[in-house]
């Protein structure tokens, strides 16, 4: 716990965790589920108008081994990067950040929003009228 606090103080005002891409789980069983991946690809960084080396300095995780398998997730992750950079404020030094009253972000940055399925209810009377009993 002490080391985490020291790391957070050393990194101030940067967030403790890095921005990570949204990826799909592997295997047929779990590929419906989305989770946070290890890092963005250099192509995704270029698509958002960032150099991947610069992206690492502003708190974005970059994974050189990951490949883009389809256009939809590529576009989603590029939009995620653009949204992050639009919200990002860069200070010259720690003193300037302290003067502006910045609070360090300690949780996950832009977590995955899980879609909640919508269930429609139907009255039993309507179903009974469609299917007459024997």
Automatic annotation (TrEMBL):
Q: Which GO BP terms sit in this record?
A: translation
Example GO CC term: the record gives: cytosolic large ribosomal subunit
One GO molecular-function entry: RNA binding
**UniProt entry tagged with the keyword Ribonucleoprotein:** yes
Keywords tagged on the record? Ribonucleoprotein, Ribosomal protein
User: Which InterPro entries is this protein grouped with?
Assistant: Ribosomal_eL13
The answer to keyword Transport applying to this record is no
HAMAP family in UniProt = Ribosomal_eL13 (MF_00499)
Q: Which family does the similarity line name?
A: Belongs to the eukaryotic ribosomal protein eL13 family.
Name recorded for this polypeptide = Large ribosomal subunit protein eL13
Organism in which the protein naturally occurs: Menopon gallinae
């Amino acid at each position: 716990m002490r080391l985490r606090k020291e790391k957070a103080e050393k990194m101030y005002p940067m967030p403790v965790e890095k921005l990570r891409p949204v990826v799909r789980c592997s295997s047929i069983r779990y590929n419906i589920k989305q989770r946070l991946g290890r890092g963005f690809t250099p192509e995704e960084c270029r698509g958002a108008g960032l150099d991947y080396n610069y992206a690492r300095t502003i708190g974005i995780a970059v994974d050189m081994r990951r490949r883009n398998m389809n256009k939809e997730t590529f576009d989603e992750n590029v939009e995620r990067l653009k949204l992050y950079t639009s919200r990002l404020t860069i200070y010259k030094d720690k003193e300037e950040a302290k003067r502006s009253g910045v609070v360090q972000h300690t949780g996950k940055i832009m977590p995955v929003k899980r879609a909640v399925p919508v269930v429609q209810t139907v009255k039993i009377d309507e179903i009974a009228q469609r299917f007459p009993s024997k």
